[in-house]
Amino acid sequence: MSRDAASDRQLWWQKGAIYQIYPRSFQDSGGDGVGDLRGIEQRLDHLEWLGVDAIWLSPIFPSPMADFGYDVADYCGIHEAFGTMRDFDRLLDACHGRGLKLLLDLVPNHSSSEHPWFAESRSSRDSAKRDWYIWRDPKPDGGPPNNWLSVFGGSAWELDDATGQYYYHAFLKEQPDLNWRNAAVREAIYDVMRFWFDKGVDGFRIDVLWHLIKDEHLRDNPLNPDYREGDPPHHRLLPVYSTDQREIHDIAAEMRAVADAYRARVLIGEIYLPIERLVAYYGHEGRGVHLPFNFQLLTLPWNAREIDRAINEYEAALPDEGWPNWVLGNHDKSRIASRVGPEQARVAAMLLLTLRGTPTIYYGDELGMPDVPVPPDRVQDPQGLRLGAAFSRDPARTPMPWSAETNAGFTTGAPWLPLNGDFPRRNVDAQRGDPGSMLTLYRRLLSLRRARPALAIGDYFPLPADGDALAFVREHAGDRMLVALNLGGGAQSIDIEQRSGETVIATHARLEGQRVAGRIDLGPNEAVLVDLDEPPAQPEKGSGPFSGRNGP
Ligand code: GLC
Q: Partners of 292 in the beta sheet?
């Protein structure tokens, strides 16, 4: 089979890169300081030029914005701050016209307390929708039904005085959890999926998928013996009964069946779980979500040996049908440039875009954006407001800097969160023409991924390395590339045995276009991508455990 034929057989979400947009912060077209759909449409040029394949929008639906859209009051509408349904339809058409896919955020675990479903549910104990949410009587002492804690602090139960029962909310009390044991709730959300699929939306990122269904008996969660002061307060308990229940896999399979009734749609699950439990979300015989988000690069210490081990564990744990994916940043975590520093952020970009599996890029990371300090009186995030500034997610949600103009070209009004202080230098315009910029690095890596089957769909073969070094080969039908990365600040030497080739992309320009053979020497924070010579001095098959199972 020719390389092209093989790569044609891969689905768009396997070959492509996903780009996450936080709509409030991408581009404001209306001058109110908050990004919107028309703004996104105006910036599609950037995304096409950058070379991503799909965009995922964090929630754009009507919402009181208690959790910035993750509190949905109407699953089939558009928040007026973001525009109208016409604007959405235009955006979808514009994306498709450019060959870009569009993914939405589905928030099925909870609605807003202002959703009509909840208004009806709370209206009386006899309401037809009472069972759509999780209502329980108080304990005999009047306290909450169990010890479960809210992710945003305090008990996860709120007493409704009018009806004398508590309702459960894993997040804010303004985000009551839907009762996924109720068949009508399931159908209602599946109808929401169909509504957007019918419009042509290409898929969903599913919010907190592992939370959806809770223990039938709502048993108390056990104490977490490893809890340390300073950890998020809800980590005091192990979420044994409140998340990741056996029945979640039936729900994921039902969602998958809804998606499979359409052509080429993708479901991505937001799931923070250890690898062995994460991969279960691919489902029995691959009938779960297509991509359970793999957050290891977000959660692990930036340490070559730990990351090496995690990649290998993940590759080994993937079911036969399971396509891998990697994430370096999102709207809930500190940005990569702040976590590892500006120099390592380039190494991280090389890692994200050369590992086997679909990469998700968080807007702004392609500029090396750091977390932006937000003064205490400007904190917006409910998590920061409730748990303290250290827990605020605002610093990773600041406006995209487009140019050196007023407000970085993001808005003509007052931006809802502060801009990065260095926006006059760190912006899209400035980096576009700079061959050494982070933006150029992202663009070149994305372009090479498209051009080279080894990177897009090739198998993964780890190479032995130690210290801060990480190295692997990607290979597909004779196309072979080697990636060598230095995740630390000292020098590293990597033995590549009989292999030789030429460096095609590197973190540092002087490393490009060099011949390498037998060994690669890297300075601090350096990484190189090597086009290996053909014919291979030694076939990769058999040199590692991850050959061909998921390839064509
Ligand atoms: C997810 C979202 C996060 C939100 C939470 C509750 O983790 O990514 O932003 O606060 O769910 O919906």
A: 269
Residue with CA nearest ligand 1 atom 5 = 70
Which atom in ligand 1 lies closest to the alpha carbon of residue 171? 6
Ligand 1 in contact with 171 (CB < 6 A)?
yes
Does the CB atom of residue 67 touch ligand 1 within 6 A? yes
CATH number at residue 121: 3.90.400.10
CB contact at 8 A, 442 and 434: no
- The tens digit of pLDDT for each residue in 407-436 reads 999 999 999 999 999 999 999 999 999 999
Distance 57 CA to ligand 1 centre (A): 13
Are 187 and 139 part of one and the same domain? no
Look up the domain containing 126 and give its range: 116-168
The yes-or-no answer on residue 105 being catalytic is: yes
User: How far apart are the CA of 115 and the centre of ligand 1, in A?
Assistant: 17
Which one is catalytic: 36, 53, 174, 207? 207
Q: Any idea what the CATH number is for the domain that residue 207 is in?
A: 3.20.20.80
- pTM flag (> 0.90): yes
Domain count, the chain: 2
Asked whether residue 269 is domain-assigned, the answer is yes
Residues 71, 129: one domain? Answer: no
Q: Is residue 77 over pLDDT 50?
A: yes
Domain match, 215 and 344 both? yes
Q: Whose CA is closest to atom 7 on ligand 1?
A: 208
DSSP-assigned beta bridge partners for residue 461:
473
Is 159 within the bounds of a domain? yes
Task: Please state whether the peptide bond connecting residue 23 to the residue before it is cis, i.e. omega within 30 degrees of 0.
Answer: no
Residue 332 falls in the annotated catalytic set: yes
Which of 431, 446, 461 lies at the terminal end of a domain, its last residue? Answer: 446
Bridge partners for 504 per DSSP: none
Residue of 519, 443, 535, 527 lying closest to 480 (CA atoms): 535
Same-domain status, 274 and 408: yes
Rg of the chain (C-alpha set) = 24
| CA 417 / ligand 1 centre spacing (Å) | 19
Give 460-498 pLDDT, tens digit per residue.
Answer: 999 999 999 999 999 999 999 999 999 999 999 999 999
Is residue 362 in contact with ligand 1, taking CB distance under 6 Å? no
Domain termination residue (choose one: 411, 446, 481): 446
Q: Whose CA is nearest to atom 6 of ligand 1?
A: 70
Q: Which residues of 19-55 are buried (b: 16+ CB within 10 A; e: fewer)?
A: bbbbbbbbbbbbeebbbbbbbbbbbbebbeebbbbbb
**Same domain flag for 292 and 371:** yes
Ligand 1 atom at minimal distance to the Cα of residue 110: 12
* Residues 241 and 269 grouped into a single domain: yes
Q: Is residue 332 within 6 Å of ligand 1 at its C-beta?
A: yes
